[in-house]
Structure of Riboflavin biosynthesis protein RibD:
Amino acid sequence: MSITPHDERFMAAAIRLSRWHLGRTATNPSVGCLIVRDGVIVGRAVTALGGRPHAETQALAEAGALARGATAYVTLEPCSHHGKTPPCAEALIAYGVARVVISVTDPDPRVSGRGIAMLREAGIEVDAGVLEEEGRHSLAAYLTRQTKNRPYVTLKLAVSADGMIGRMGEGQVAITGPEARAQVQALRAETDAILVGIGTAIADDPLLTVRTPGLEMQSPIRIVLDPSLALPLTSKLVETAREVPVIVVASEEVSPLAADAEGLPPSVLPDISPIGGEIGNGPALSIPSSDSNVPASANLGQGASSQPISPLVGEMPSRAEGGNPPTDMESRRAALEAAGVEIVYCNPYHPEILLPALATRGISSLLVEGGAKTARLFLEAGLVDRIQLYQAPVVIGEGGIESPLQATDIPSGFAHKGTSIFGADRLDEYEREN
């Protein structure tokens, strides 16, 4: 059967539905599903919070007997393997669906093509690739973790009219207006984790949570690149670490096991879940090493380097950006951990190692918010997938901190995807071309 405008209209609705739970479905993708009979939607669902139940089983249950002979529109190929729940392909067959329309084929080797084959073997008509570009955009985080062994990385920058992102020594400086800031809160709410450098953490003392009323529980895990454990104990991040998790990425040189760990892979990541920042009680998981099935340096993305990234000026382990190293490292470490901060010993200037380690913990999306040096680190490593560049009419003037990126010098390999206006501010979005 050929694809019709009705198919595209229903798939577009399923894609919009899939975005409802972005960042809230653990390691599972947020999938949208519609059951349509005689042009009427009789069942609809999005992957449940936490990742289960899947969208298809919920939509089928809502449709009930009306699912027989109907068409199912699914943003991602229905699963075909037995995991913690039975395969969705089996559920579609059992309910007697006549046709399944799919946007994106699942790259998961347990599923890829098998779900479609199972449906066709049962006599169900299957059409795939409907609004595939739009579907891939909504599933970008899941697809990146599956195919590149790392989270999908978004770099967000707010730049003044004179090319600055802040002012030296003044902490947080409002560059964009309330409309643009509200949009950033929405972005945080659909992201698994947010990352800043220690300079930003000290200078701005940010909270990095979602402050939109009703979305506070969707705050991402907060990550600070902090080679010398210089994060102040009185910072907002530390003071709220038991409410929303904070991970500090410290240099191996300050690890209590440094003397005994020579020649071993970097230390482990805490056992964290990207759902509402919950911390689990299971065993920690080692960072992938060169003899893993998927090397840490494999499939990291265009321009990624497996070589160490040079430490940023002013961010050497003995001289953390924006702060002095603590004099009593052991007591500092103990105080941070007592406050609920997780400490990971992994060279902060090796994003090609850190990102796969985050992926092993189910973190599929990462928002890099600051500062300038941290932004350059990820850009130079070729590990940014999307750039959100806000441009505001505000003038910072003398003492400004120059932006690492402006609209006139977007790196090669990025395509401009669109412009949006929020109040007096302009947002230009760029995505890495595959």
In short: The first strand starts at residue 32 and ends at 37.
